[in-house]
Design a protein that fits this description.
Strand order of the largest sheet of chain A: 3-4-5-7-6
Number of helices of chain A: 7
Radius of gyration of chain B: 23 Å
Helix content of chain B: 40-55%
Largest sheet of chain B: 6 strands, parallel
Shape of chain A: elongated
CATH superfamily of chain A: Envelope glycoprotein gp160, DUF2291, alpha/beta domain
Largest interface: A-B, 29 and 37 residues
CATH architecture of chain A: Beta Barrel
Distance between the termini of chain A: 97 Å
Number of helices of chain B: 10
Oligomer: heterodimer
Strand content of chain A: 15-25%
Strand order of the largest sheet of chain B: 2-1-3-4-5-11
Largest sheet of chain A: 5 strands, mixed, barrel
CATH class of chain A: Mainly Beta
Number of domains of chain A: 1
Structural class of chain B: alpha/beta
Helix content of chain A: 40-55%
Chain lengths: 207, 313
């Protein structure tokens, strides 16, 4: 009888041990945290915005000149001035401009240039890959996976929102003259050239 | 007599070598290994790749991994031992599939990944991928607009070990999380599977019966979620968003059942992969390691431009 009890107990222990080690349960958020932990997207984005990008800002195209070029020959303008990682119709442009602030709200600063062009400087919802891709400085082949690249965009956008926009917004007021440099996204097959949104990377009040 | 036998044996060996080299010089063979054929999107991807391979003058065979990395490894073993000349590959696991790719590359068989990536920049000969992150950003913006910046929602994730799952989720959240009025009440994986999505959605609805939206990591799950909502009598109230551009979802957007999807272009992906294999056979070696294909938002406003799996010609 005692032998049977020992036998069955051992059997149950072995089965429990095998079953316990056969299945691993992880929370989804733990999987997210451990993924790509070797790549420091935040440090990469910081270095990109403050060291690499300032050099590229010397080669921006004036936004009104770009839009005129697009209106006359969109294909050529995209080929000449846009960058992007994709096979597709979306292009990202590095642009610059000047003008007068005509409105400020929670989401955007509206800037009107001398020739009447109005653009929106995004200050609240800063999304997407425009700043990462517009200068054409980053190649996808540098990264083991696309998630690393996408995390760079997220970090770049955070830095712009938290470090580049606030010092400008504190001082900016309606009527101020400003100079800006930033990035825009356009879709060649669905062009919308009104109220273009610029993600700013350089902002200066020039009163 | 013994010498004659040895001579005959040598001749037989030579003849066999000769026939072997003839086999190598004949029609090249392309293996198309896909994660699953239980999803129409992947069936279209595989069949398009086979069609393009045939048009380029090659024989091809489709292998179904049934979302099982062990089965996928068996396919690679078979493909290598059967002396295929190239592999067009849709991986089951971003990390787990690297070993299979490496094995093929070491056997001098080029591997061109389609749609799903492996976590290795230089593992495959080239990887042709959908730009899932950018596509999900577009869906996220539209989601915010359609829900009027407020409400509760559910997210159905794809296979947790697949990078597409997280690229889509992260792109979506990079937008939606900025709106405090939008609250995610449940996030669960349904493995990119329609039936599983139906079951998962049914369970979620028991706990959260008053949701306003569902974002699904692919169209098969969107159809499953829609079916669950329909059974619960909530299909008219809850807005469902998918990702893929599958035939049934394009039809459902037209009918107002599904709100939007992200159109991937499996035809472009598959044809590019087959064309790369052709160029490889002709001597080209400098392929882009990763080539993303843009994903476009499809909704009721632009549905007339699209058909299942692509744009109208």
């Amino acid at each position: 009888m005692l032998k049977k009890v020992i036998k069955y107990s051992l059997g149950i222990i072995v089965i429990c041990f095998v079953a316990y080690n056969a299945v691993y349960i992880k929370k989804l958020n733990e999987v997210k945290v451990t993924e790509n932990k070797l790549f420091d997207a935040k440090a990469y984005a910081h270095n990109y915005l403050y060291k690499k990008l300032p050099v590229a800002l010397n080669n921006t195209i004036q936004i009104d000149k770009l839009l005129a070029h697009i209106r006359t020959n969109a294909a050529n303008a995209f080929k000449t001035y846009s960058h992007g990682q994709n096979i597709g119709d979306v292009g990202y442009f590095l642009v610059g401009g000047q003008g007068q602030i005509v409105n400020i709200d929670d989401n955007d600063v509206l800037v009107k240039s001398d020739n009447g062009l109005v653009i929106k400087l995004a200050i609240q919802y800063i999304f997407g890959n425009a700043v990462r891709d517009a200068p054409g400085l980053i190649s996808m082949n540098e990264f083991n996976n696309t998630m690393d690249m996408n995390n760079i965009s997220g970090e770049i956008n955070k830095i712009i929102k938290n470090e580049i926009v606030p010092p400008f917004i504190v001082k900016a007021k309606k009527g101020d003259k400003v100079a800006y440099k930033g990035c825009i996204e356009l879709n060649q097959s669905a062009l919308k050239l009104q109220n273009i949104e610029v993600i700013p990377v350089f902002l200066k009040i020039e009163n | 007599m013994k010498q004659v036998k040895v001579l005959l044996l040598m001749l037989a060996v030579l003849a066999s070598c000769n026939s072997h080299s003839k086999k190598s010089d004949g029609n090249k063979k392309i293996a198309i290994i896909v994660s699953t054929l239980n999803n129409p999107w992947f069936v279209f991807l595989a069949e398009t790749a086979a069609k393009k391979a045939k048009a380029l003058g090659y024989d091809s065979k489709i292998f179904d991994s049934q979302n099982n990395t062990a089965l996928e490894a068996d396919h690679f073993e078979n493909v290598i031992s059967s002396e295929y000349n190239a592999i067009l590959f849709n991986p089951t696991d971003a990390t787990g599939s690297i070993a299979n790719v490496t094995k093929a590359i070491n056997a001098d068989i080029p591997v061109f990944c389609m749609d799903r990536e492996i976590n290795s920049a230089d593992g495959a000969t080239s990887q042709i991928l959908s730009d899932n992150y950018s596509g999900s950003i577009e869906i996220g913006k539209y989601f915010v607009e359609m829900l009027n910046k407020k409400g509760t929602y559910v997210e159905l994730l794809g296979i947790v070990s697949d990078n597409n799952t997280w690229n889509r989720s992260k792109g979506f959240h990079s937008i939606v999380d900025n709106y405090k009025g939008l609250k995610m009440v449940a996030q669960q994986s349904a493995d990119f599977d329609r039936n599983k999505a139906l079951e998962v959605m049914e369970s979620i609805l028991q706990v959260h019966p008053d949701i306003d939206g569902v974002f699904c990591g692919n169209d098969a799950m969107a159809m499953g979620a829609y079916q669950a909502l329909l059974s619960a009598g909530k299909a008219d109230k809850v807005k469902v968003f998918g990702f893929d551009g599958a035939q049934d979802v394009i039809k459902s957007i037209k009918q107002g059942k599904i709100v939007a999807t992200g159109m991937q272009f499996p035809k472009i992906i598959a044809e590019t992969a087959a064309t790369y294999a052709d160029e490889y056979f002709k001597g080209k070696r400098d392929f882009p390691k990763k080539k993303p294909i843009a994903v476009e938002l499809v909704n009721k406003e632009n549905i007339d431009k699209y058909t299942g799996y692509g744009k109208k010609q």
